[in-house]
Amino acid sequence: MDLEKIEGLVKIIENSSLTEFTLKEGDLKITMSKLDHPPVVAAGMPVAPQMAAPAPEAPAAAAVEEEQELFITSPIVGTFYSAPAPEAPAFVKVGDQVKNGQTVCILEAMKLMNEIQAEYDCEIEAVLVSNEQKVEYGQPLFRVKKL
Q1: C-alpha dist (Å) from residue 73 to 77, 80, 103, 116, 121
Q2: Whole-model pTM?
């Protein structure tokens, strides 16, 4: 992955409500997160606030950890809605257990409302986007734990 792609990812994270993002491409794993404090300086080299250096992975431990980190991702480009109407409660919130086929959000694309459903029984660990936020194809919407 080249520096331009990484800089592009940093800009996307800066302009979104995401607080953490992980990308794995081959043997390279990049984790970015927004910090609430100034960047750390190590050995005279400032660390970019939105980027963590790729960490070397322990083969067995990393594989187990990665299998447990699951996401419900956006199948289309559109606008994320957490509830069926502005006054209605959200479809799901952190800690909710959802069943296979249960609606977790709505994505609006070209004036069509698309209900996004869970593909398996899971528990919502984090909601990664905010209401009415624009989302991209493949963007993680929810971090989940399979039941």
Answers
A1: 11, 11, 13, 9, 15
A2: 0.55
